[in-house]
Each structure stands twice: as C-alpha cells, then as structure tokens.
Write a structure and sequence with these properties.
Length: 230
C-alpha cells in the first residue's frame, strides 16, 4: 500500500522538497535548531503558516499578531476536514480523527478525489498518504535548516519562495469578481494599515477585510442579478 501511494504522490513529494528546504533555512535563521525545525514541521501541517511565522518573527511583529495571522490562513483546514468527513462514513471515529488531524492541502485534494471517484481508497490509505507527505515536509525543512547553517542564504531569497507560491496560486484561480475584489481589497487594506502605522495588525486585518468585502460584493451583485431576472 505504501508503494502504491508513493507512486501516486511522488510529484507532490518533490514539490515539498523544493519548498520545504527554503522554509527550513528561514526557520534556522530564527534561531531554531534542526530538531526544533523537524518537530514543528511534523506537527504544524500548513507550510504557508510556517513561512508566515518565520517571516513575521524576523520582522519583529508581536506574537499576538503572528498568532492571529496564522490562525486566519489556517482556518481553511476546518473546512477541509468537514468536507472529507462525509466520505469516511464507514470509518471509526478514531480513523476519521486521524485523517482529519493530519491533513495537508495536497493530501486533502488527492484523498477527496480518490474517495469521490469510488476507487479502492479508504481511511487507511488517506492516513498513510498524510503521514508520507508530513514526513517528506519535515525531512525537507530539517535538511534546509542544516544546509542553511553551513551556507549563508539571504533571507529575502529564501522567503520569496513562499511569496512566489502564493503568486502562482493567485494566477491559477478562476478570474471571478469575488477573487479580484478580495485581492484588491486585501492589498489596499495592507497599504492603509501601513500608512496609519498599524503594522502589527496589517496582515490579519487585510485578510478579514478582503474576505468580507468580497462576500458583500457578491451578495449585492447576486441579489441584483436575481431581481433583474424576475
């Protein structure tokens, strides 16, 4: 079963290596030892959150703002777990909890597709897939921390890996009114917070503002479209 899953997921594993190594370098520059990097990477399953923690810490952002920012971008995992749970109806509560607690974004996509398609896939396969990806990410981050301690890699270069990842994700999204409004509103909110000197809350405030304005905009236009149709 492990070999079967590795054959399916090996492209994702390579991506984890390419992104995890720079993340480990940044984590090492915050003062974390390699064993600390492995411990965090193996239990905190959002890579974007790890990048955010390190970059905000190096920038001197207060811990409260870091927690709020990471919590905001990590809340999506609650939706991932909720959406995959109905497809694990035949599993025990312990199995369902094990799958939900170890989900990564890529593992979620693969497992959900397999479960929906009705393939020979169940909670055991989903859990093993999660463990393989988490282990790959943890080893990649730890390797990056070890290499970063020997080779001096500028923080800006390593940190841009995460930024470039989000840029790719942005351009891969469907060009809809809500997405455009959310992106523009978030950028404007950050600029306003910076201008007003509210640096500590710029990131979480921009997330909340972008989502709220996009939802409000969609609600207004959808309601107007329904009235026009009537």
């Amino acid at each position: 079963m492990v070999l079967k899953i590795v054959r399916i997921v090996w492209p994702v594993m390579l991506t984890y290596v390419a992104i995890g190594a720079p993340c480990g370098m940044i984590m090492g520059q915050t003062g974390m030892e390699p064993w600390m990097v492995f411990a965090l990477s193996s239990t905190f399953v959002t890579g974007s959150g790890q990048f955010m923690i390190c970059n905000l810490w190096l920038a001197g952002v207060p811990a409260v703002s870091i927690v709020a920012s990471v919590a905001a971008i990590s809340s999506r995992f609650a939706l991932y777990s909720a959406s995959i749970a109905p497809h694990l109806t035949g599993a025990s509560k312990r199995q369902t909890l094990a799958v939900a607690a170890t989900l990564t974004e890529e593992a979620y996509g693969i497992s959900l597709a397999k479960l929906v398609e009705g393939e020979d896939w169940g909670p055991r396969e989903s859990f093993v897939l999660n463990v393989i990806l988490i282990a790959t990410w943890g080893v990649s981050c730890t390797t990056g921390a070890i290499v970063g301690a020997v080779v001096d890699v500028p923080t800006a270069i390593a940190a841009f890996v995460c930024t470039s990842l989000f840029i790719c994700l942005l351009f891969s999204q469907r060009l809809s009114r809500g997405n455009v409004v959310a992106a523009v509103s978030g950028a404007v909110s950050v600029a306003v917070c910076k201008f007003l000197g509210l640096t500590n809350i710029a990131v979480p405030a921009s997330v909340v503002a972008g989502i709220a304005i996009a939802l409000a905009c969609d609600a207004v236009f959808d309601g107007r479209g329904a009235r026009d149709a009537r």
